[in-house]
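Below is just one:
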Amino acid sequence: MTGNHYQTLEISYKSTPDEIKRAYRRLARQFHPDSQNDSASHDKIVAINAAYEILSDPRLRKDYDNQLIANSPEKRAQRTATAQANYHRYKEAVQEDESLVKQWYNQTYSPINRLIGQIIRPLKRQIDHLSADPFDDQLMAVFQDYLETCRQKLDRAKTLFSQRPNPTKMAKVAASLYYCLNHLTDGLEELETFTLNYDDRSLHTGQEMFRMAQRLQVEAKQIASQCQN
């Protein structure tokens, strides 16, 4: 069963608690493995239970709704537009000399590059561990701890990036870094969504966002090396 929790329970986003409960009971009877229905399915009842657990709790439902809004195409387009606008502010002319380039390389690029690596490198190992049983609470807790650590490192990288304008000579490096951080933001949101709905599409999208970020990291490193020569 794919889609978000509302689609899983076949209800609208404005459904009341009573409507959610009725939908859950109807689907639970229909898909429960112990029922005599031809449509009985263990996988579907797991998805139905997960959806009901979130949507029946007002606090969890509010958090989930906020994540759905944050992951909407409109919000992503807005983040991209904001990223572009912010990046252009960093293109202001600065006095160009080798000491300034070296300072930005050592104090901005290098620590950000390390943080990006610390976010991306563990992902495959973390997913391999989780794949043993995604519904195991302990395995999921470890994965969520990894995501929280990534979020903290990403926030630190963004702070470092915003602390000083890049020299003109490093403009392409800065552009690659900025969009790398942007992809990591989207990737983390997709992976965090997966921990809520167990939808493989969120997991795969998150992995692809990380791969795109890694390509930009490599691109930034190559350009930075050329600028240092």
User: Anything to note?
Assistant: The chain has a mean pLDDT of 88. The chain has two domains: 5-66, 73-228.
